[in-house]
Amino acid sequence: MPPQAALVNGQDPRQNSYYKHPAKKLNAKDHQTLEDANMTMDHDILLEVSVDTDRSSHSGVHSIGNELALVPLEPPRSSVSIAGGPTLSNGHSTGSGFNLYQGSSVSSSLTTMDDNYDIYRGERGGLAGLQNLGNTCFMNSVLQCLVHTPPLVEFFLQDYNDEINRDNPLGMSGELALAFGDLLRKLWSSGRTAIAPRAFKGKLARFAPQFSGYNQHDSQELLAFLLDGLHEDLNRVKQKPYIEMKDSDNRPDEEVAYECWKNHMARNDSLIVDECQGQYKSTLVCPECGKISITFDPFMYLSLPLPSTVTRAMTVTVFYCDGSGLPMPYTVNVLKHGCCRDLCQALGTACCLKSDEMLLLAEVYENKIYRYLENPLESLTSIKDEEHIVAYRLKNGARKTKLEILHRCPDNVKGGDRKIFGTPLVTYLVEDPQYGANIEAYVHRMLAPLGKAHSSTRSHEGKENGFISGFDGDALTM
User: Fold this and answer.
1) Measured between alpha carbons, how far apart are the two ends of the chain, in Å?
2) In angstroms, rounded to a whole number, what is the distance separating the alpha carbons of residues 358 and 428?
3) Using CA atoms, how far apart are residues 133 and 214, in angstroms rounded to an integer?
4) pTM (predicted TM-score)
């Protein structure tokens, strides 16, 4: 249900709007919602309440006459915040606020620190969480980091009003610092109940419209805005002097660094500068005359590149060219800028390559051998991650005649034609073939492990490695 502009304590108050213009009478009805009355966030309403002396005396509340109260408009919640001049609470003047009880609680938003924050009583604070207002986890993560930074906690839990620079044209009249300080104090109270940062979110949307709404944003961008805004709101320098930067002129770095930091502090002096800023050294060398210019520049953030990995994982299927086993995939880590020899060594270790064996690398494309990677010094950067790389276990020195076996099966789409499937098998013939029977013997020996794979487990392994156990034809390439 939307909040309504209801009467306070049963009286007939006169309501005046002070939003961005002089006092203007606001005729809000009891049944009107805040939206219908054109009230928005940060909209101050002045209520002039007439207190009945007779009724007050019977109820135990002593009247001091008409009361004025500035009512800051906030999102709907269980209590209505009222702040402003001297008020009454159970017959006692509190100075900063009062509590009226009529169904819902009306409490002050500007109470003393000792009343609300038990951190000074030795109780552990800072255990409260922040509720998400939509997709505002980006904001909550930044706020939790800041409100748990010890120097900021110590600063904002004390009286920091004298530190606020309300006249800084680059700042926000201290409103951002006040909103952040109020939120920090609430989070550092002794309670553990999660807090909805609606008031802070409203201030943030007011000064940084890019963060308005309840969508996700970049946390770093928000952090940069908050630190810059807090710095300007807390800048102790009221009048920034003009300072002309001097050249280093071959002076010691310590002297130049001290001078640059002193000049920076003459224009920027705040808690944020004390805790979150530094300076780095920049060196420029003229390629023509060789003159060296050294400057020291302030910084609040350092953009560092993510460390690039020096290794890459490669998955290669190793085939037995003597028919002694089924193909087996291996995933190995090699240097990203390594060579094919490094890949062969890693594969040899993974598949327990024998001393009298070697590996032949090949790239398979569309079920055919696209190229052989026989140069051991070829860079691995030439192999893309999506390329299909296989390795064949061969006997050392058996490099006379190369035999490739392609797998074919009937193509039902093209009717009677055969299509190539799977991964080719490769081996070397020890002797030059004189008869077709010799080649047939090689083929049967290499296909024997596939023919024996009748179990479901082995059949599944064969499919994963590009094989189908049921084949009815082979094509030989020599």
Assistant:
1) 83
2) 12
3) 6
4) 0.45
